[in-house]
């Protein structure tokens, strides 16, 4: 995704979405930070993993991205 493109709600690789939220950090650090934000927000955490998706999946589904944006705002 280019910097000048608007954010689109769609499925994202977890590392890419984390980096969109924390562009100044290396991907691993950005992922750790996003995981911490999710873990600390019980409503978001419960909603993210109430479906078929698992915590160890490599991608956030469109449904999960919608929930993340709803709770954290757009990156």
From TrEMBL:
Matching InterPro entries: DUF4248
Q: What is this protein called?
A: DUF4248 domain-containing protein
The lineage, from the top, is:
Bacteria, Pseudomonadati, Bacteroidota, Bacteroidia, Bacteroidales
């Amino acid at each position: 995704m280019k910097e000048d493109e608007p954010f689109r709600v769609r499925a994202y690789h977890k590392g890419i979405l984390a980096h969109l939220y924390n562009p100044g950090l290396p991907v691993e650090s950005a992922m750790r930070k996003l995981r911490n934000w999710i873990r600390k927000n019980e409503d978001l955490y419960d909603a993210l993993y109430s479906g078929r998706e698992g915590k160890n999946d490599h991608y956030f589904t469109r449904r999960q991205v919608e929930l993340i944006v709803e709770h954290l705002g757009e990156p």
